[in-house]
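Data availability (excerpt). The following record was deposited with the supplementary files.
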Amino acid sequence: MNINLNLNRSIRQKIQLYILGSVVIVYLIVFGFISVSNRKAAFDQTAKLISSYSDRYAGEIGSNLNSDMSALRTLASTSIINENVGIPAFMDLKNDMIRSTFKANPNVYSFWDSWEYSYIKPGWSKDCGRVAFTIWTEGGQTKESITERSLDGDPEIYAHQKVLKKENAFEPYIDVFAAGK
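Predicted structure:
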């Protein structure tokens, strides 16, 4: 085994070894710097691209929601008719309008409309109880139901919406029916 490898080399070999070693170290430093810089630049470009896509799609979604909310506001404004035609005729007319609006908006999966009995049922004294009209698409067919709900108290999520007394949009939630209904 030759321990004195470095000592037995000529000056020319030592200079070549130092120069080659220095070049390798500089190359590694430059390559590392370029890699880190490119990684940061790629990350920044990706973040900008994601931001531009999210802005674009947020605008499209906002436009669609505004259009859908406009249809819902139109339906909501029909409650004035109630005073002129009577409650049963109003409920039939409202449900027909919902059916027509649902048919005209194939992008909408379902409509759900709920009216408190305290508003539409003379003599109803409880602060809960309502009738709900729901229309939806299932298996390519339009289905609908009219159900009584919240006869003995409002479910928590509905009670929260009811207290707000303003136009609102919430994440979809699993529907809760009144016991036995």
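Summary of structural features: The longest helix spans residues 11-76.
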